[in-house]
Amino acid sequence: MRERIEKALRKSDAEYTEIRIEAVTSSWVDFRGQELDSIGSSRTLGGIVRALVKGGWGYVTFNDLSDLETRVREACGSARLVGEGESTLGEVEPVVDEIRASFERDFRQIPLSEKKSVIEEYNKIILGYHERIETSNVSYTDSFRKFWYGNSEGTYIEDERPDVGVRISATAREGDNVQRGFESIAGGGGFQIIEGLQEKAEVTARRAVDLLSAPPVTGGKYPVIINPRLAGVFAHEAFGHLSESDFVYENDRMRELMVLGKRLGPDILNIVDDGTIRGLRGTHKYDDEGVRAGKNYLIKEGILVGRLHSRETAARMGEQPTGNARAIGYQYQPIVRMTNTYIDRAGAVLEDMIKDVKLGLYALDMVGGQTSMEMFTFSAAYGYMVRHGNIAELVRDVVLTGNVFETLMNIDMIGDTVEWPPAGGGCGKGGQSPLPVGLGGPYVRIQNVVVGGRQG
Amino acid sequence: MIVNRLIEKAMNKAEGAQASLGQGESTDVSFENDRLKSVRSSQSTAMGVRIIVDGRIGSSHTTDIDDVDGVVARALEAAEFGGPAHFRFPDPQEGPDVRVYDDRVPPVTKEEMVRIGGEMITLVKEYNPDILLSAGVSKGISYCQFANSAGIGHTTEDTTFTVWINGQLIRGTDILWAGHGFGWKKREIDHVSIAKKAIELFRMAEDTARIKSGDMPVIFAPEGVNVLVLALRLGFNGKNVFLGSSPLARKLGEKIADERFSIADNPLLDYASGSSTYDGEGVPHQVTRLIEGGVVKNFLYDLDTAGRAGTRTTGNGVGCDPTNLVIKEADTPYEAMVKDTKEGLLVHNVLGLGQGNPMSGEFSVNVELGYKIENGEVVGRVKDVMLAGNTYAALKNIAAIGDKAEWAGGLLLTPPIQVGRLSVVAK
Ligand SMILES: [Zn+2]
After folding, report:
1. What is the pLDDT of residue A111?
2. Domain end: B158, B185, B204, which one?
3. At A189, is the pLDDT very low, low, confident or very high (cuts 50, 70, 90)?
4. What's chain A's average pLDDT?
5. Is B354 left (phi over 0), alpha (psi -120 to 50) or beta?
6. Residue pLDDT, tens place only, B16-58
7. In terms of domains, do B238 and B135 share one?
8. C-alpha B30 to ligand 1 mean position (Å)
9. Long-range contacts from B225-228, C-beta under 8 angstroms, 24+ separation
10. Of A236, A227, A301, whose CA–CA distance to A269 is shortest?
11. pLDDT tens across A111-125, in order?
């Protein structure tokens, strides 16, 4: 493959050209209710050529690999149509590297029948949990991605990225009241990470049943304590997306809002994006432009100190590439994305966060999150009211929203341990979803958070 | 045809099979930060088979057109452990007449697409040069072969064309997003009116209005109606109905909405994004009434789910999802809706839709683009406002339905809808 890629790259008359070829094998098992809904496997092979001429990008994606050289010429032609400025790319040393995935249980060696029986057991646990359980959805997916990447500066990388995950959902019903419990586990470590989840299945079913009798949270402003899983979502959704420089670099006013050195939070607040942590879903040795991944502080001691870059945004802003150009697959160009994003630990413990709260909310886990620049909303899977320093009744439909600049300033306590719950799903941006990311953090307390819901 | 070879191969071991091959080419022109940013062209191949062996289903797909043997072998392996089939592959049937191909799409050049995007940006910039714009123009042509072991064999060809523009206006720490776009299977899209619609949304947002928390009437502009429709997309899915996870499961024939409210799944509208002659299982498309006069009429089914539920497919395979949803017009002009509102909210776009428990109908969303109505006039844009409620409660509490339907995106054709009271939480 290296020879084919390099030969095709030589046909380019652009200032910069890269080719990424990707082969993916995947399989899935999907139970809905009593029955197996779908089982199967697939293979895809495709590629992308990207060319840069006078600051304009042309790119071509394809499944038919037979004529790479024509694809290169077409990408160059499109780039010429676009380009009318100056090309700038952050400097990186060319590398040649071959990476092989290492994992405990290689899911490619496991027959579909075994995958099915593992999933079927979780499904049975849910359906048998309680008479109010109406239905279930337990689905397994795995994918093994092999990449071949080469660019016109001499970089050549082969990489492998395995990902395996299970989504467990339980639906409980009482008349018109329908509630759902949800868990997802995913990671790159091998098949074993989705084994032994019997207890998770039971907890998921129990949550759906418990939520039937939980009232919706009363809308209003509360002190909110979020658990590590939700803290990770907060770091990613509420703040992380604003650190992606493609939002900022051609936007003078965003540059003003996100000027380095500005205070965005209290001294105890550190937010980091780190693509090098072993075993997490956002981890890679090189990003999809062949740039080495790194540990990048975004907020250090409450001060904005860094942001995430592709080679292009780094050059335009006079900063260093950070290894954050990522694409979800060969049909897409790499854009600035997060890897594993977390709020770093400070010194508090959960008990202390709760004990002086008169009326507040303890929000757990997540079922979704979205941002539009400084506005964010995220949905906790469930929550508990906190009353007079104690965790009180379970509540549902917990949606947190706000302006990130105000919310970060309102953080007043951060826990002493960073956790990385192995959640599935992923991040969406620019039509590219889901991209595997890592989300982590400790327990965090935030004052004055707007919680959506009916008025009390 | 390749699909016939796939069927032949599969039928050596299988008792039934279907095969499809889709090949497409598309071009996208993207503008970012006011400038032409990239031109992309793409070629795609997708080949899949679904088979039944000993009453069990297995499937597989690939992007490699030469992998006929591999894709069949993997489907056979999957079928060994597959779930039981509750259907037989259907016999050939005459399909309805619906237009999905426009021969004016293929000749559109990249240069012309660049010009369309550029003109839209110039128009919005003339209104306000501080708005930072992104825009896109896309075209696509795809060719599909389909066959099954019961004798269906057809090929279809369709085109797509899409134009959109989005702007961002920053004032201090305040960021306003607004935009408009439309896509369908026809070249004919008036990009000037799309730019003008975007300008209109910005113009209405020139002033900011404060709104107090509380229950108030809410008008959903066509784009905003998606807030209400999401629960219906999930609730009318026959699989969710069969499994009991849809709140509509036992409500066939029951009145669940205001009697002016009717919604149908209609894949037969010429050139609409969700239109085509056959569904993904070779079943002819049809119009399916979902709610008529407020009463639940039908759910959407594919072959297997219909078999399980003891009913007939509605041509919504595979997956029981809607194609184009069409909400029937009623009698209130949009202007009258606004004029009759003393104090209320007008919703265009929201953030956070689909989080939480969308199947239940509950929504709690951030109003990304919304306006305050005061004494019959739109007085300005609202900020930091959450809107919460339940689709099913809202449908019973409809105050007015517009007299003119518009496309919201590409898959929903709807008039504006005013709901009597919804909970609004302002900061
Ligand atoms: Zn994200």
Report:
1. 92
2. B204
3. confident
4. 93
5. left
6. 999 999 999 999 999 998 999 999 999 999 999 999 999 999 9
7. no
8. 21
9. B225/B327, B225/B408, B225/B412, B225/B414, B225/B416, B225/B417, B226/B353, B226/B408, B226/B409, B226/B412, B227/B347, B227/B350, B227/B353, B227/B363, B227/B365, B227/B387, B227/B391, B228/B391, B228/B394, B228/B395, B228/B417, B228/B419
10. A301
11. 999 999 999 999 999
Q: Quick one: pLDDT at residue A454?
A: 57
Same domain? For B229 and B184 the reply is no
CB contact under 8 A, B364 and A378: no
| Rounded average pLDDT over A276-285 | 92
Q: How far is the CA of A252 from the centre of ligand 1 (A)?
A: 23
Q: Are residues B136 and B73 in the same domain?
A: yes
Q: Could you tell me if B56 and B112 lie in one domain?
A: yes
Q: Which of B178, B204, B230 is the last residue of a domain?
A: B204
Sequence spans of domains, chain A: 2-213, 218-455
Q: Are residues B189 and B69 in the same domain?
A: yes
Asked which of A244-253, A280-289, B362-371 is least confident by mean pLDDT, the reply is: A244-253
Q: Smallest CA–CA separation between A30 and chain B, in Å?
A: 10
Q: Are residues B236 and B327 in the same domain?
A: yes
pLDDT at B61: 95
Q: Which CATH architecture has domain A2-213?
A: 2-Layer Sandwich (3.30)
The reply to whether B73 touches chain A by the CB within 8 Å rule is no
Do B96 and B216 fall within a single domain?
A: no
- Confidence category of residue A456, pLDDT binned at 50, 70, 90: very low
Task: Tell me the pLDDT tens digit for each residue of B171-200.
Answer: 876 788 999 999 999 999 999 999 999 999
Chain B residue numbers touching A171 (CB-CB < 8 A)? 243-245, 359
For residue B237, the one-letter residue type is: N
Do residues A399 and A378 make contact, with C-beta atoms less than 8 angstroms apart? yes
Q: Give B-chain residues touching A173 at CB under 8 angstroms.
A: 244-245
Given a cut of 90, whether residue B296 has pLDDT beyond it is: yes
Tell me how far the alpha carbon of residue A236 lies from the centroid of ligand 1, in angstroms. 6
| pLDDT recorded at residue A342 | 97
CA nearest to B216, candidates B373, B404, B2: B373
List, as ranges, residues 315-344 from A with C-beta within 8 Å of B.
331, 333
Which of A41, A133, A252 should one mutate to test binding to chain B, selecting the residue with the greatest count of B CBs within 10 A? A41
Q: Which residue of B has its CA nearest to A60?
A: B41
Q: Which domain holds residue B408?
A: 207-427
The per-residue pLDDT for range A398-421, each reduced to its tens digit, is 989 888 999 999 999 999 999 998
CA of A272 to the centre of ligand 1 (A): 15
Which CATH number is B185's domain given? Answer: 3.30.2290.10
Min Cα distance A80 → chain B (Å) is 10
Q: How many structural domains does chain B have?
A: 2
Residue A447 carries which side chain, given as an amino acid letter?
Answer: Q
d(CA A71, CA B40): 11
Q: What is the pTM of this model?
A: 0.89
Closest by Cβ to A64, choosing from B45, B352, B356:
B45
Q: Answer whether B351's CB lies under 8 Å from B421's CB.
A: no
B132 and B58 both lie in a single domain: yes
Residue where the block lists tokens 């392996």: B77
Chain B positions touching A454 (Cβ under 8 A) are 388-389, 423
At A453, the pLDDT band (50, 70, 90 cuts) reads low
Q: What are phi and psi of A170, to 5 degrees?
A: -120, 135
